[in-house]
């Protein structure tokens, strides 16, 4: 796949009481930079490369990653290694952390590892320093239970993937500190952390030249996808097509994703998610958040494209997600075991404890009224899907869902957060109303 350019960086490291896993020394870190111009004067501060390249990168004989395209944005991939042998004899209660006070600017981060079947049974906490600031943010937790997102087992996309936490949007930053530790399991030994842990620092970059700068396509009459049969004589219940910010509109570089598209037969259900990226973004920043998630899904996690079919921001703006056509049954990577004959909608933010804005719930209703209507779906109805294999339902099991369901209905997960999940009943009612039911 595509390579990436790496430049050296000077790194200051400070040790403290720390975790069983920490950021490695400079020689063990790798920066994946898609275009030298995109880093500006900070390019000279990029860490030197070593080790195997991550997804979306190739290495030359010297092990350095080089760019083969001009994709905006950067991904710095920093190896997380166990403490040195001498430090392993300290009491288990002690922690170890290492600090990177200077890195190439980034806005989104996450942790990835080699085997997608391995879980990170522990905690990941980070703090960052905003660009131009001297003070650091407080510690933030990264959502570690993220393996339930992704392609279905047995697919090529699933086989190519890496394990990953949810990404976290932290805003433009140039310093980072991370703490990773296994879950306490007294009186038993703590569980092992996954192999190949890396901290991914993502700069979404600016939109490619010629992008529409998040200008939505105009709303128009409902479209009928060519793949569905002719509608019966009865009235088709299709909501008005909402305004949708296209991939070009939010600045998706089409050379970043895999070529071609993946489709399923129909769209019977919509699974609602929260992105778990945090709520510290403005609606003006939403396109940047999406570019960050897109890059994290493809470059860091090894997916073919962004996993969600659509996204909705806190202001209710609707965005095209995975490529393939907004009217078509595009196969996403959002609800493990149930990506066939469904679509995934991510509300940007974290809604386990925060109430989602009414505009975001309205965006879900408008989108589902239209898209499900194209496939004759009733937002207040029930539908049966066949599990492709998940932690909740065995492969081949037939499961009945609400046509508009939460991710937790298909998997043992908190997603889309209790507060957003509690709003889905209202979204179903509103969507049915938009369809004229």
UniProtKB/TrEMBL annotation:
Keywords: Signal. One of its GO terms (biological process) is peptidoglycan catabolic process. Residues 242-390 form the Peptidoglycan recognition protein family domain. Gene3D superfamilies: Peptidoglycan recognition protein-like. The keyword Zinc-finger does not apply. Residues 1-27 form the signal peptide. Residues 38-81, 204-225 are annotated as: Disordered. Residues 38-62, 208-225 have a biased composition (Low complexity). One of its GO terms (molecular function) is N-acetylmuramoyl-L-alanine amidase activity. PANTHER family: PEPTIDOGLYCAN RECOGNITION PROTEIN (PTHR11022), PEPTIDOGLYCAN-RECOGNITION PROTEIN LC-RELATED (PTHR11022:SF41). Belongs to the N-acetylmuramoyl-L-alanine amidase 2 family. This is Putative secreted protein. The lineage of its organism: Bacteria, Bacillati, Actinomycetota, Actinomycetes, Kitasatosporales.
């Amino acid at each position: 796949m595509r390579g990436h350019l790496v430049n050296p960086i000077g790194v200051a490291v400070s040790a403290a009481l720390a975790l069983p896993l920490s950021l490695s020394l400079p020689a063990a870190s790798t920066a994946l930079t898609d275009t030298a111009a995109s880093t500006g004067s900070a390019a000279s501060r990029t860490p030197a490369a070593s080790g195997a390249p991550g997804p979306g990168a190739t290495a030359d004989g010297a092990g350095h990653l080089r760019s083969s395209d001009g994709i905006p944005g950067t991904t710095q991939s920093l190896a997380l290694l166990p403490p040195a042998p001498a430090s392993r004899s300290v009491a288990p209660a002690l922690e170890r952390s290492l600090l990177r006070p200077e890195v190439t600017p980034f806005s989104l981060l996450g942790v990835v590892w080699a085997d997608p079947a391995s879980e990170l049974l522990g905690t990941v906490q980070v703090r960052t320093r905003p660009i131009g600031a001297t003070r650091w943010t407080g510690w933030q937790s990264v959502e570690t239970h993220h393996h339930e997102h992704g392609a279905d087992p047995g697919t090529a996309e699933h086989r190519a993937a890496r394990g990953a936490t949810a990404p976290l949007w932290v805003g433009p930053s140039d310093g980072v500190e991370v703490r990773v530790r296994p879950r306490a399991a007294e009186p038993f030994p703590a569980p092992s952390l996954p192999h190949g842990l890396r901290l991914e620092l993502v700069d979404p970059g600016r939109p490619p030249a010629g992008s529409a700068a998040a200008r939505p396509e105009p709303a128009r009459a409902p479209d009928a996808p060519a793949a569905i049969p002719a509608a019966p004589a009865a009235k088709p219940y299709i909501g008005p097509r909402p305004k949708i910010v296209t991939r070009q509109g939010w600045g998706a570089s089409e050379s970043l994703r895999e070529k071609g598209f993946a489709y399923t037969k129909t769209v019977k259900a919509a699974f609602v998610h929260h992105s778990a990226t945090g709520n510290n973004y403005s609606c003006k920043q939403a396109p940047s958040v999406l570019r960050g998630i897109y890059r994290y899904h493809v470059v860091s996690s090894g997916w073919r494209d962004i996993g969600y079919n659509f996204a909705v921001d806190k202001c209710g703006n609707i965005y095209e997600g995975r490529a393939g056509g907004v009217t078509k049954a595009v196969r996403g990577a959002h609800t493990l075991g149930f990506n066939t004959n469904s679509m995934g909608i991510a509300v940007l933010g974290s809604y386990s404890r925060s109430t989602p804005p009414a505009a975001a719930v309205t965006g879900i209703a408008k989108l589902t009224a239209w898209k499900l209507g194209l496939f004759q779906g009733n937002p207040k109805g029930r539908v049966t899907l066949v599990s492709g294999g998940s932690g909740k339902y065995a492969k081949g099991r037939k499961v009945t869902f609400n046509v508009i369901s939460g991710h937790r209905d298909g998997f043992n997960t908190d997603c889309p957060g209790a507060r957003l999940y509690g709003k889905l009943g209202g979204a179903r009612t509103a969507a049915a109303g938009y369809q004229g039911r």
